[in-house]
């Protein structure tokens, strides 16, 4: 009798999809059994949005005019996609440190199932986060002004950024392996997140700092989605400012191209 590992390519693909979905369902069941963790994860970016929108918004001026809250919401949407790396890292490193990943590897299942299942679960979480933030933004008076097509394109860019951060998180979780290392990750992620055009335009910053901010991959996504949503932002004459939509695709694709194979290779070497 032919085993799953000896199956034809079409059958192997079918089993790989089924195994990946099994791992995804495991994470979904975990959320259902521990809803507080999911709820806190959804409320945290909303808290940032409300804090900056209402506590500091009155003192902020958008170059060229416009409502600061409309300037802010796209930035926080992108920031939440980047901060998702912490949840990915924690989940992967926890499974590795507790031996769960090794048990999965000992089972007759597709080698891609664990990382693909993690990817699908985290993308579902990202979609929920975006939905919660959009509702909060709409309640604050934010909206998109260039039609539903550009708005969907903006949400696509946000999910693409989350996909890139996801594979970075998977790789770091497999390398560091310790959930306690999330503190070290936060020391790196938070400055990168705030060293962007999420809360303030680069043109208001010192020249060298504004250049660094413009070349932050997240800044490209933020600039592009502000344009797609029709929200106030900054134009600028720099190359990055003029090609933000292109770079909002290029940066995440480059990160996925780098960290996806690194994650797969690291996963295969876990037991060595």
UniProtKB/TrEMBL annotation:
GO biological process assignments: response to antibiotic
UniProt keyword Transmembrane helix, yes or no: yes
Predominant location category: membrane
Cellular compartment(s): Cell membrane; Membrane
PROSITE patterns: ABC_TM2 (PS51012)
Transmembrane segments: 38-59, 71-92, 128-145, 151-170, 245-264
ABC transmembrane type-2 domain ranges (all copies): 36-270
Similarity comment text for this entry: Belongs to the ABC-2 integral membrane protein family.
Classification via InterPro entries: ABC2_TM, ABC2_TM_bact-type, ABC_2_transport, Nod_factor_ABC_transporter
Superkingdom of source: Bacteria
Gene Ontology MF annotations: ABC-type transporter activity
UniProt protein name: Transport permease protein
CC terms in the record's Gene Ontology section: ATP-binding cassette (ABC) transporter complex
Membrane topology (UniProt): Multi-pass membrane protein
Protein keywords: Antibiotic resistance, Cell membrane, Membrane, Transmembrane, Transmembrane helix, Transport
Xref: Pfam families: ABC2_membrane (PF01061)
């Amino acid at each position: 009798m032919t085993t799953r590992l000896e199956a034809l390519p079409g059958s192997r693909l079918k089993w790989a999809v089924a195994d990946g979905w099994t791992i995804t369902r495991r994470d979904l069941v975990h959320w259902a059994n521990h809803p507080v963790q999911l709820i806190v994860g959804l409320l945290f970016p909303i808290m940032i949005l409300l804090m900056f929108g209402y506590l500091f918004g009155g003192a902020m001026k958008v170059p060229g005019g416009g409502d600061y809250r409309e300037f802010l919401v796209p930035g926080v949407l992108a920031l939440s996609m980047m901060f998702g790396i912490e949840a990915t890292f924690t989940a992967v490193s926890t499974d590795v440190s507790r031996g769960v990943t090794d048990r999965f590897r000992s089972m007759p299942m597709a080698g891609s199932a664990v990382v693909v299942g993690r990817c699908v679960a985290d993308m579902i979480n990202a979609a929920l986060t975006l939905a919660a933030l959009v509702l909060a933004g709409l309640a604050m008076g934010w909206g998109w002004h260039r039609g539903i097509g550009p708005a969907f394109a903006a949400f696509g860019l946000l999910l693409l950024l989350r996909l890139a951060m996801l594979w970075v998180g998977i790789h770091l979780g497999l390398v560091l392996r310790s959930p306690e290392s999330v503190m070290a990750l936060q020391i790196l992620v938070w400055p990168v997140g705030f060293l962007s055009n999420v809360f303030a335009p680069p043109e208001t910053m010192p020249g060298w700092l504004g250049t660094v901010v413009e070349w932050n991959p997240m800044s490209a996504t933020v600039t592009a989605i502000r344009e797609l949503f029709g929200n106030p932002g900054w134009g600028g004459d720099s190359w990055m400012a003029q090609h933000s939509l292109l770079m909002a695709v290029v940066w995440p694709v480059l990160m996925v191209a780098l960290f996806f194979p690194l994650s797969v290779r690291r996963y295969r070497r876990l037991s060595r």
